[in-house]
């Protein structure tokens, strides 16, 4: 009796978790290797990889992958998997703030009683915008950082945040919220999520990546609010 091969292991940030789960299922259905991903906050994922925890595949924002590559903590080449737009969400039924230009967005942020954000790329971008707009002091106490493992959507749906900033896939399909739209020109941000191999990755990891990067996956990526990066 043959013993089933152990699955490949992967780690990713939260924004790509649903997509990667479906890509992994499709990979197996097409005769490829099985991959089991653990999806956590991007900062925590990068820290664990840097600390030497073993994963066959690592999928994070491209700047995080670049940092790990430069430190020799993952193997290249970096493969850009998907692009994700940053959006604004509000509690279901709440008025939608205008997002037609950067000034309107700034005014909406300045007036919001509470603003939810994460530690990932979208959170870094929001804090950079707040600094650029000179709102650090006036927003002190109104910026609500999502705890590890808690989606920004949860803060918005529960009313802990009157506005939430996050990658579109993090908000898609979440109950109790409404996505207002993408950030306007001048303030917009698109994050590229990329893949790399772990230092002791099994050879089958290369096969799995080929399945994930195949042009035939483009429709599935769009279904999850993402676009192919290639």
TrEMBL record:
Gene3D superfamilies from the UniProt entry: Periplasmic binding protein-like II
GO biological process: molybdate ion transport
GO molecular function list: molybdate ion binding
Entry-linked InterPro entries: ModA/WtpA (IPR050682)
Pfam families: SBP_bac_11
Coiled coil: none
Protein name from the UniProt record: ABC transporter substrate-binding protein
